[in-house]
């Protein structure tokens, strides 16, 4: 019995030693979310596409959930993505972190349709919107987009940060 206990002790000690040798801290700066360059603007948003007048819903649409997230390069570029829900908009845009404004280069590739889009006059405004459901103060997003499938028409997109609260989900214009 003493022999089995001794062998088991050595086995457990060996396993503990091997585990400590092979565990290591991840030094990848991108894996650490606190090092994401565009962290202040990443998240989900309720956004509506409006006609050029900035008031009339485009094609009778309503709010859809957009996402903004960092590119793999972890620089001031980020993805603006409607999750293929409405206007089929997924494009890379560039953020000026000091002013929280953004735009794309003209005729940026739009990944859902294979067409192009030009995004201008983009802006995030901190703590400027009160949600209608829960009265939570959140950030706003606004930008304009001209798509190659409708040249000459500049759509206005307006929205606000998603809270995740049931009272705020699936808003209507």
Automatic annotation (TrEMBL):
InterPro entries: Lipid-bd_put (IPR024404), Lipid-bd_sf (IPR038668). The keyword Signal applies. Transmembrane segments: none annotated. It comes from the Bacteria. Pfam families: Lipid_bd. Keywords: Signal. Residues 1-23 form the signal peptide. Gene3D superfamilies: 2.40.128.220. This is Lipid-binding hydrolase. It comes from Christiangramia fulva. The lineage of its organism: Bacteria, Pseudomonadati, Bacteroidota, Flavobacteriia, Flavobacteriales.
